[in-house]
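Inputs:
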Amino acid sequence: MADLKPGFNPLFLREEDLREGMELLFFAYRDFVAEADQVLSRCGLGRAHHRALYFIGRHPDITVSELLRLLRVTKQSLSRVLGDLSAQGMITQKPGLRDRRRRHLALTPKGTEIEHEVTERQRASLARAYRQAGAEAVGGFRKVLTGLIGGDERKRFAADRIAEASRPGRLPGVAGR
Amino acid sequence: MADLKPGFNPLFLREEDLREGMELLFFAYRDFVAEADQVLSRCGLGRAHHRALYFIGRHPDITVSELLRLLRVTKQSLSRVLGDLSAQGMITQKPGLRDRRRRHLALTPKGTEIEHEVTERQRASLARAYRQAGAEAVGGFRKVLTGLIGGDERKRFAADRIAEASRPGRLPGVAGR
DNA sequence: TCATATATGTCAACGTGGCTGACCTGAAAC
DNA sequence: GTTTCAGGTCAGCCACGTTGACATATATGA
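Outputs:
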């Protein structure tokens, strides 16, 4: 069953600890998103809408295909969500100047408001966990999670992400595929 | 907008860092579960089946309601999943001796095999991330995630969980509700 | 200039896995 | 022994993923 050999691994790689880590991730994620779901349901929105709002807010003028690569869903799924958000006046979609096939997405004031309202809960929740755990633990948290991210996306969370943060409209890890 | 005041918070609690943490969690979880989904779809099972298999394997003779509290889904949702697993001969359900209403669940050899096959991928993935990050980072990872878990469940991941691990059939955080 | 290949986005139909509501069954209480 | 209740099931619905077929826009080449 490809079991880990206890004698050849540090303590934290034991079967039991790995299982515990998996459960921790499961429970933490479950509760983290549940935080937002309450607010979302009051707005008549789902989790999928929130994810779209979030990333559009974070990357103004993002195109649909860039958003697709971030979310890793099919364009058909995303299309429905964007249709909803557009119908409710939460996002704007303007065709690109260079390539008029592309629609560039942005939040309306209303969309911004909803996004903040929902995300604020999660941010507060994470902030509390960060504060309780301390700066050093936060570093470890980020280190391990970064290691779990597969492939290209990991680069976005490399050490030099400060530079990225100062260019808010860009999507370095996405535009370059 | 209830923004965090930069002057009164340590650096790692800045808006930008919290957003990055949220995204990290999103991407890491997304890729972590995607790992298992490939294997699952080959077995004709879904994510819900895996979660049930996992926790039944980890807590033999668990009752349906205990499982419900772990997974936080409705009994109707779980019932369908258990029906599938039972029909495919992956779990056994025997009525309790003391209270014959309760069904105690356990994995069959076939169920154990499938569970291992799926979970093994995830365990390997987490082990790699742990190894890359180092023991200290793993401690921080667990600390922050534990802080994200709401309410009662957090206790299960307290310092004395070693004691729990030596009593594999028990569910201290669950039975006591 | 028009035929076509490619990229992008949409429409229709379907599957998984959540949910609520109504109901059944065994155990316990009066 | 009827009632009450916890544990579990059946039926139907919804959110949000999927695939397949199609529409539109740009780029390419005769």
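Remarks. The first strand of chain A starts at residue 62 and ends at 63. Residues 46-48, 73-74, 76-77, 80-81, 99-101 of chain A lie near DNA strand D (CB under 10 Å from a C1').
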